[in-house]
């Protein structure tokens, strides 16, 4: 069983390969001078370390910076008698708190070179650091070496490695490790079960996760709020809101109070599936039970109201959240602005846009796309272009949707040359034109009778490996027929038929 889990380079890998980072640093003994300049590249985040006081065999040591910690480590490895593994673990635990798992790995390497003994807690820290650095093969190798050195993996060892496997979406291996854990007599705890359930749910294996809850109860562990939240979230991801709601009721029976995160997951899924009345009832239930909605809850409800045309309810929800001192965010305003634009209510959309700016909420590309779409629909193309030009100065970048929207506005107004300017701008910005882009411009040129330009665009489209579709050829054929270019129209139909036949043969 263990071989299934530790199959990648576990038998021959050193505990910490000398090919790892800082090999030269360790060999030259210059860690104190060299390590502080190393970048954080493993955990992907920067923690706010505020200093820590350590009680070691030599007394109390206050560490306020990375340099202090490295200096203390250098003193400890030179000290005689040697510090215990417990003391070294305490110190290296500080590097973990600093979000420097890379440094922790390097220091354990130096300990191995100097033959400083490690204990099971040392290995647990090392496995955690490898997992945070996305070096899972080394974590598995370390796990495989634990028993070879006479140590017994404990619950922390298994939980840490399970978490690492699940983070890398290696769920089948996580399940195998869980089975191996049980076989070796190490009793899973709530963290074990919840970690594996979360991994299963992320992979859509919700039924297996639910079965794991029953197994958890059999082992004498009661599911907690995190456990239920994991399962509810998994059920909502596969649109099984009925089961999620049943689980919510089961929580009530067991006197476990659901939190806003669990309610948000169900409300969000109900809204996305169009069950707006059920979402509204659950939203009301939250209030009745003293569970206060947050900005995500309101965003789900506002978006649902907008998509069903309930403008008054959407505005009321916005007023509600402001009264409750829940600050709306860019997602809130985007939902409202997009809905108003689609309904032709550009004045309301503009007011909301101004309100965003007054509140110091920075619009994003989605906001600008909606506003530009609104201006184009009202034939306010100069306003649309001004907003397009201002996007970069606002810290955003237009995307293909932005460009397609403005090109469409210009082409509908028969300002195809202006549309071509945006098309050229796309190339300058590295935005790849799509079938929609080409179709819009081809149709625009056909509308104004410039079939040569339309044909040139079609040729460029094909040479750029952008596949024409029915709309492309329909636009070209309509333009040719209007110009009474019937021979060219027939020739295009023949080419189109041959292209379709060729595709069918290849299939």
TrEMBL record:
Residue runs in coiled coils: none
Signal peptide residue numbers: none
Keywords: Repeat
Swiss-Prot/TrEMBL GO biological process terms: chloroplast-nucleus signaling pathway; mitochondria-nucleus signaling pathway
Domain of life: Eukaryota
GO cellular component: chloroplast
PPR repeats: 119-153, 154-188, 189-223, 224-258, 259-293, 294-328, 329-363, 364-398, 399-433, 434-468
PROSITE patterns registered for this protein in UniProt: PPR
Family label: Belongs to the PPR family. P subfamily.
PANTHER family: PENTATRICOPEPTIDE REPEAT-CONTAINING PROTEIN GUN1, CHLOROPLASTIC, PPR_LONG DOMAIN-CONTAINING PROTEIN
Protein name listed in UniProt: Pentatricopeptide repeat
Species for this entry: Arabidopsis thaliana x Arabidopsis arenosa
């Amino acid at each position: 069983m263990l071989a299934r889990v530790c199959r990648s380079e576990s038998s021959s890998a050193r505990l910490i390969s000398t090919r790892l980072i800082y090999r030269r640093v360790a060999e030259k003994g210059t860690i104190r001078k060299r390590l502080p300049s190393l970048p954080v590249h493993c955990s992907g985040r920067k923690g706010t370390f505020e200093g820590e006081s350590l009680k070691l065999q030599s007394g109390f040591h206050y560490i306020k910076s990375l340099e202090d910690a490295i200096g203390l480590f250098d003193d400890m490895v030179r000290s005689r008698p040697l510090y215990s593994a417990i003391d070294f673990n305490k110190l290296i635990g500080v590097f973990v708190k600093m979000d420097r798992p890379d440094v922790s790995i390097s220091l354990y390497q130096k300990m191995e070179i100097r033959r400083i003994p490690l204990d099971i807690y040392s290995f647990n820290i090392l496995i955690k650091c490898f997992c945070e650095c996305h070096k899972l093969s080394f974590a598995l190798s370390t796990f495989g070496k634990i028993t070879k050195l006479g140590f017994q993996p404990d619950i922390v060892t298994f939980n840490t490695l399970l978490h690492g496997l699940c983070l890398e979406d290696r769920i089948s291996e996580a399940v195998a490790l869980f089975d191996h854990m049980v076989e070796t007599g190490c009793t899973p705890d709530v963290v074990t079960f919840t970690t594996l359930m979360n991994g299963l749910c992320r992979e859509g294996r919700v039924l297996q996760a639910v079965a794991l809850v029953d197994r958890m109860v059999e082992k004498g562990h009661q599911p907690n709020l995190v456990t239920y939240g994991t399962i509810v979230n998994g059920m909502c991801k596969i649109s099984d809101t009925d089961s999620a709601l049943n689980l919510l009721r089961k929580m009530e029976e067991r006197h476990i109070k659901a939190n806003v995160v669990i309610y948000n997951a169900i409300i969000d899924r109900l809204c996305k599936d169009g069950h707006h009345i059920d979402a509204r009832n659950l939203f009301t239930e939250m209030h009745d039970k003293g569970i206060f909605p947050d900005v995500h809850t309101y965003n789900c409800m506002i978006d649902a109201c907008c998509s069903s045309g309930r403008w008054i309810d959407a505005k009321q929800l916005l007023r509600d959240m402001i009264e409750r001192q829940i600050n709306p965010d860019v997602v809130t305003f985007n939902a409202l602005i997009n809905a108003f634009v689609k309904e032709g209510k550009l004045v309301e959309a503009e007011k909301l846009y101004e309100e965003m700016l007054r509140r110091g909420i920075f619009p994003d590309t989605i906001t600008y796309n909606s506003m530009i779409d609104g201006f184009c629909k009202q034939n306010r193309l100069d306003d649309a272009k001004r907003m397009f030009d201002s996007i970069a100065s606002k810290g955003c970048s237009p995307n293909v949707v932005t460009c397609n929207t403005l090109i469409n506005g210009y082409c509908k107004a028969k300002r195809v040359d202006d549309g071509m300017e945006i098309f050229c701008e796309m190339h300058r910005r590295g935005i790849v034109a799509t079938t929609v882009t080409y179709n819009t411009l081809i149709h625009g040129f056909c509308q104004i009778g410039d079939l040569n330009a339309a044909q040139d665009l079609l040729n460029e489209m094909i040479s750029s490996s952008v596949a024409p579709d029915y709309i492309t050829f329909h636009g070209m054929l309509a333009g040719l027929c209007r110009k009474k270019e019937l021979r060219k129209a027939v020739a295009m139909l023949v080419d189109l038929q041959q292209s379709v036949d060729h595709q069918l043969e290849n299939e």
